């Protein structure tokens, strides 16, 4: 470098007069300002940039159009926030929304460990009691499961039970107990919860008042109802309603 060269070096005080910093913002601790006994000592605040004096290689501050723009480019404080804008924080919740769709229909709501099977239409859990019991004991067995003897209160449900016969879920000769009796008043048939039965499917000639409990039989692919002696030991069908 020629001895008269006066190159710019890093440093400036344009942000705060006489507070000298490097372009990256670091405070300058070492300084080598020009001292003069006859002229003006530096910095004399006629500018915001630092240059080397050619001969003594000590420093002067001076005005420069080059210094200021270069600096303001490097000190860009704006970039950090811009960057944080690009990191999308939103994706995680969106993803968790897509996961749990499938489980509800797959879940079998019935206590399968107790031998219950699921029917979707009519919606219920049922099991066949093949260990023959009298009506009271059959009812107690179902209640012990959290259910009751199956309640046939519609044509749809009567047809469903006929289907159980037809699909050999139970033997065609089976005559299981179902919910219903006329123990309180002869010929006034009620479910165990006391509700009066409105739908009935008596076999012709029944009820013939030979008992107070309700059982069914398959006849010509249809389920028909019989009254009978509650002490008979018969198969039974339990039901647990589902939500
Ligand atoms: Ca009766
Ligand atoms: Ca009868």
What does this protein look like?
This protein is of the alpha+beta class and 243 residues long. The chain has two domains: 8-77, Mannose-Binding Protein A, subunit A (Mannose-Binding Protein A, Chain A, Roll), CATH 3.10.100.10; 110-241, Mannose-Binding Protein A, subunit A (Mannose-Binding Protein A, Chain A). The protein is 21% helix and 23% strand. It contains six helices and ten strands, in the order βββααααββαβαββββ. The protein has helices at 67-74, 79-86, 91-98, 103-106, 135-144, 155-166, and strands at residues 8-12, 49-52, 59-62, 117-120, 123-133, 148-149, 177-181, 213-219, 222-228, 234-241. The strands form three sheets. It has a four-stranded antiparallel β-sheet with strand order 4-5-10-6, covered by helices on one side. A three-stranded antiparallel β-sheet has the order 1-2-3. Strand 4 (117-120) and strand 5 (123-133) form a beta hairpin. The radius of gyration is 48 Å and the shape is rod-shaped. The chain starts with 7 loop residues before the first strand and ends with a strand. 22% of the residues are buried. The structure holds calcium ion (2 copies). The site of one calcium ion (CA) has 6 residues, from loops.
């Amino acid at each position: 470098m020629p001895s008269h060269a006066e190159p710019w070096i890093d440093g400036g005080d344009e942000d705060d007069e006489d507070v000298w910093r490097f372009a990256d913002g670091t405070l300058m601790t070492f300084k080598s300002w020009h001292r003069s006994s006859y002229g003006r000592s530096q910095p004399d605040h006629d500018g915001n940039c630092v240059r080397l004096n050619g001969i003594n290689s000590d420093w002067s501050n001076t005005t420069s159009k080059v210094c200021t723009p270069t600096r303001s480019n490097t000190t860009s404080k704006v970039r950090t926030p811009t960057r944080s804008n690009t990191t999308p924080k939103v994706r995680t919740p969106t993803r968790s929304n897509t996961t749990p769709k499938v489980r509800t229909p797959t879940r079998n709501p019935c206590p399968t460990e107790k031998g219950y099977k699921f029917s979707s239409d009519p919606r219920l859990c049922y099991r066949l009691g093949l260990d023959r019991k009298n009506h009271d004991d059959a009812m107690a067995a179902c209640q012990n499961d959290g259910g009751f003897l199956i309640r046939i209160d519609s044509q749809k449900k009567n047809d469903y039970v006929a289907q159980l016969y037809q699909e050999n879920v139970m033997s065609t000769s089976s005559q299981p107990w179902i919910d219903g009796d006329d123990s309180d008043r002869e010929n006034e048939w009620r479910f165990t919860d006391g509700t009066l039965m409105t739908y009935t499917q008596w076999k012709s000639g029944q009820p013939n008042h030979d008992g107070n409990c309700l059982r069914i039989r398959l006849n010509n692919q249809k389920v028909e109802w019989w009254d009978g002696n509650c002490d008979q030991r018969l198969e039974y069908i339990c039901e647990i309603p589902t939500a």
